[in-house]
Amino acid sequence: MIVDKFYNSEFDAENVLKLNFPLSFVRDFNSLLINSQVFKRLASISPPWKSDISWLSPNSLEDFKIFNKLFDQFNANKLLKEALNLEFDLILYCGFLVVRSRCEAIDFHTDWRGLGLKAFTLITPLVEQGDDLGLVYRKSNSSIGNYYYKPGEAIIFGSDFIHSTMPSKSKRKIILLSFTFGINDMNYFPLIDKCIGSQSNLYRLPNGDFRIRNLDIC
């Protein structure tokens, strides 16, 4: 078992932090999505939660590169290495648009089980959305904390951050941007695949190769 811990006193929880995510990046990304009609080509997968959430992800290498360009602009490698004192390089596994308008019940879960701070999920809003459908999580004393997505800010978490969509209902679809990313070492792929293997049609492996539903294409 990998033991990597980071305690954040602001959240009163482990393996979570927030970083600035420039609004200029989001505006440029939104324009690119609209102009290139990427929305129409994304694959849609819905988890079995009490919510209308859908994960929309690239269905081709061409569209993956659009998400990867934004990931590179954000410079997660530099920011996370400095914030968490990481000693390895980070690679984007997949980029998503997370679309939803309601959540009926809390469904606590943790991403990246057993990976400590070797893999991460990033979430930031693509549009202004106020207090619609935030995130709830377990604090160190097991009480429930709340986090509301804010334009210009990203929440990033590794394993052992127990969280769920906040039960709520919005009159409009809420669109979030999400990255799954982490260590570029195939020794950890069995654990990584348990998290990302069912989220999308296409994703990148730690060694840089790509896979479509267990079919290697590069």
Q: What report would you give on this structure?
A:
The chain is 20% helix and 35% strand. The protein is of the alpha+beta class and 218 residues long. It has one domain (8-216): q2cbj1_9rhob like domain (Jelly Rolls, Sandwich). It has a seven-stranded antiparallel sheet. A hairpin with a 4-residue loop joins strand 1 and strand 2. Helix 1 packs antiparallel against helix 2.
Could you name the CATH topology? Jelly Rolls
User: What's the total helix number?
Assistant: 4
How much of the sequence is in beta strands? 35-45%
Spans where pLDDT lies below 50 across 5 or more residues = none
**What's the number of structural domains?**
1
Major β-sheet strand ordering:
3-10-7-12-6-5-4
Quick one: biggest sheet?
A: 7 strands, antiparallel
Oligomer: single chain
Average residue pLDDT:
88
CATH class: Mainly Beta
Distance between the first and last residues' Cα: 30 Å
Secondary-structure content class: alpha+beta
CATH superfamily: q2cbj1_9rhob like domain
Rg calc: 16 Å
Extended strand count = 15
How would the global form be characterised? globular
Which second-level CATH architecture applies? Sandwich
What proportion of the residues is helical, as a percent range? 10-25%
| Order of secondary-structure elements | EEEHEEHHEEEEEEEHEEE
